[in-house]
Amino acid sequence: MENASKALIIAGAILLSILLISLGIMIFNQAQDTVNNSGMSQAEISTFNNQFLKYEGSQKGSVVKSMINEVIASNSDSNHSSNGATVTVTLNGTKMSTITTSGISTSKTYTIELEYNKRTS
Fold first, then answer.
1. Within 13 Å and on the Cβ side, how many CA atoms surround 98?
2. Which of the two ends of the chain, N or C, has the fewest CB atoms closer than 10 A to its terminal CB?
3. Structure letter (DSSP) for residue 80
């Protein structure tokens, strides 16, 4: 009888250990997904990017000003900012620290190139 109770205690300890290890792995995987995932599904990322596709290519200054205003509005949206979906503007090779339309001439033509984050999660 004593051997049977020890066997049950050992079996219970093994099952409890397996349960704790499985729980630890599950928590680790969820934390890893949180770190790697921007919080946006692929469809949401595509929708976010599509709002700027219309500006790509050679555009007049007035269209560039419209794009910059849309970037400012997008960056101020708390839903996008919390997901890490912010847009940066580079003008003549210089990243603009404060995005404004003041340096844009409506009579000039600008070339707009879109660059995407290479994150694969």
1. 3
2. N
3. H
**Tally of domains in the chain:** 2
The yes-or-no verdict on residue 62 having pLDDT over 80 is yes
Domain that holds residue 47: 42-112
**What is the DSSP secondary-structure string of 10-64?**
HHHHHHHHHHHHHHHHHHHHHHHHHHH--S--HHHHHHHHHHHHTT-EEEEHHHH
Q: Fill in the amino acid letter for 109.
A: T
Contact 61, 106 (CB under 8 A): yes
Distance CA 61, CA 103 (A): 10
90 phi/psi in degrees, rounded to 5: -115, 125
pTM: 0.54
Q: Are residues 62 and 7 in the same domain?
A: no
d(CA 56, CA 67): 10
Question: What is the DSSP code (8-state) at residue 92?
Answer: T
